[in-house]
Amino acid sequence: MTQDITLRQLLSFIWRAKYVMIVCMVIAGIGAYAFILKATPLYKATMIVAPADGYALGDYASSIQYDRLASIPFWRPKDQEGASTDFYRFTHTLRGPSVSNILMLDKNVLSNINEKRKQAIATQEELALYLGKHLRIDPLGATPLRKITYHHHNADFSAAMLRKLHLVADQMIRRDRRKQSQSRIDYLNEALTKTTNPDHRRGITNLLMQQEHVQMLANLDEAYSAIIVEPASHSPKPVWPNKSLTYFMALSIGAFLGFFIWSLWRRDD
């Protein structure tokens, strides 16, 4: 039957194993130092975005509508928090193949991403996988705001990359909305010429006014799906590798291994 070891006995064992533990801790410390020297330091860039509703997405247009029920199929769908689904489309588009396809045309982006990679990114699918792994989007509390985080060895590029991603994704959604609203305007204009019923004409006119407002807002020189609450900025110092944490973990592992090795020697004796 095994006998429980008291705290006093454990401290006594640690004291007797101190030399082996110190040797292992020194070796682990040297290994941690070599790892820090060899590791590529990464900077952290962050940007906070929020739904552009109420700013550039047409709250004014929705306030002048006369028949809300008739306009629902043509208006921007929103979730329970009141945020447009275009904002959620924005957050998912950032890491999607559509954005990656456009970024592939930017040689500066590809050269910076591939600078220290063993295997260079060559296709939009590979770039989408890279963004899915290195681009993080986190909610801020219970608000619809999102914090976008990106790590890269080039501090200036890390912040520039976030600005680039926001611009590309926002412009893609703007382009699709503009095209969609224009096709609806064409359809409503044609339906208006064929309709003689006054009630139907009034409903079509209201829908047409909304789509014209959407078209106008889509042509404004401001964010369409997501506004920037906090501009992209990078950390002043590398956030990885964390020297303090690396040394702490290395020394802790070294001390444990040293005690384990001493225990094996003691058992053999």
Short description:
This protein is of the alpha+beta class.
Structure description:
With 269 residues, the chain is of the alpha+beta class. It has two domains: 43-234, FepE-like (Bacterial polysaccharide co-polymerase-like), CATH 3.30.1890; 239-269. It has helices at residues 7-16, 18-38, 59-63, 68-71, 85-93, 97-103, 107-114, 124-134, 155-194, 198-218, 243-268, and strands at residues 43-51, 135-139, 146-152, 226-234. Strands 2-3-1-4 form a four-stranded antiparallel β-sheet. A hairpin with a 6-residue loop joins strand 2 (135-139) and strand 3.
CATH superfamily of the largest domain: FepE-like
Major sheet: arrangement of strands: 2-3-1-4
Q: Determine and state the CATH class of the largest domain.
A: Alpha Beta
Count of DSSP strands? 4
Rg of Cα set = 29 Å
CATH architecture of the largest domain: 2-Layer Sandwich
Which percent range describes the beta-strand content?
5-15%
